[in-house]
Amino acid sequence: QVQLVESGGGLVQPGGSLRLSCAASGIFFSVNTMGWYRQAPGKQRELVAVVSRSGSTNYADSVRGRFTISRNNAKNTVYLQMNSLKPEDTAVYYCHTTVPDFWGQGTQVTVSS
């Protein structure tokens, strides 16, 4: 069955960095567009970044220049490197695959001093 397992979340001070990982199984990973989304308390889930099968990327304006999405097809894993973190980046971060349409369980990122 399809599994997306996120890891790497935690508590970090403003200006710090975290690297999220999402290990996929049960899908044709190399042909899938993979994405990271986030949902803060009381807000709708929003796109953070996506990477296509060809490696092209797209970012939300709020994270462009600070976050980097990448993929390792040999490891069926997608990453989100988050630098210069701000308190407004606090949210549960979810991994998503398009075929099939499937979500991971999420990992909490908290940016606070």
Alpha-carbon distance between the two ends: 40 Å
Question: In terms of per-residue confidence, which ranges show pLDDT below 50 for 5 or more consecutive residues?
Answer: none
**What is the N-to-C succession of helices and strands?**
EEEEEEEEEEE
* Classification by helices and strands: mainly beta
Strand percentage: over 45%
Mean pLDDT: 96
Radius of gyration: 13 Å
Task: List descriptors.
single chain, 113 residues, mainly beta, seven-stranded mixed β-sheet, four-stranded antiparallel β-sheet, 0% helix
Structure description:
The protein has 113 residues and is mainly β. The chain contains no helices and eleven strands. The strands form two sheets. Strands 2, 4, 5, 6, 9, 10 and 11 form a seven-stranded mixed β-sheet that branches. It has a four-stranded antiparallel β-sheet with strand order 1-3-8-7, with no helix packed on it. β7 and β8 form a beta hairpin. The protein is globular, with a radius of gyration of 13 Å. The mean pLDDT is 96.
